[in-house]
Amino acid sequence: MKKKDFDILPVAERRRFIRHPLSIPISYKILKKTRDINEKGVPAVTANVSMGGLLFSTKRPVKVGALIEIKLPFKDKIFNVKSKVVHCAKSSEAKVYNVGSSFYRFSDAFKTKLIEQIYLIAEYRDLRSIQLGREISLEEASREWIERYAERFKRLYW
Can you give the residue ranges of every domain in the chain? Predict the structure, then answer.
């Protein structure tokens, strides 16, 4: 397929990476050169993540081509990743805009993958605690999750 042909394919056909559902609250800032356009982060919620980028919903439209900094929280930590907006469409079902962004650097994709894995382990911990009828530690849940799912998770991404 020629690059020219690729450019006219619908967005759904351009996907190169498997999407993983992930719903977490985030915020983003639109960056312009060295200064922020918005001083505060705009609230949003992720819909899915892949090695190529992130899809999130927000109440404001974001211009295609904009460089954004996304803040991904986990417990007392905030991870910042830069990405470029590749599409923005108003949702027909809700009063939000679905924004697709492409990671700016490989290190941003890697950070996001680690955060996703941390969230999955935390969810696994909650599930196992319910199944076992006792609280299990994050360390114990991490060991179990890695033994059971890390290889499959790795294959989905790499």
Answer: 3-104, 115-157
Kindly indicate whether the domain formed by 3-104 is annotated with CATH number 2.40.10.220: yes
Local confidence pLDDT in tens for the 158 residues of the chain? 343 433 333 444 444 555 667 788 999 999 975 555 556 789 999 888 877 888 999 999 999 999 999 998 877 888 888 999 999 999 888 889 999 999 888 777 777 777 777 778 888 889 999 999 999 988 888 888 888 877 766 665 54
Q: What is the DSSP string of the chain?
A: --HHHHHTS-GGGG--S--EE---EEEEEEEETTEESSSSPEEEEEEEE-SSEEEEEESS---TT-EEEEEEEETTEEEEEEEEEEEEEE-SSSSSEEEEEEESSHHHHHHHHHHHHHHHHHHHHHHHHHHHTS---HHHHHHHHHHHHHHHHHHHH-
Give the amino acid at 102: S
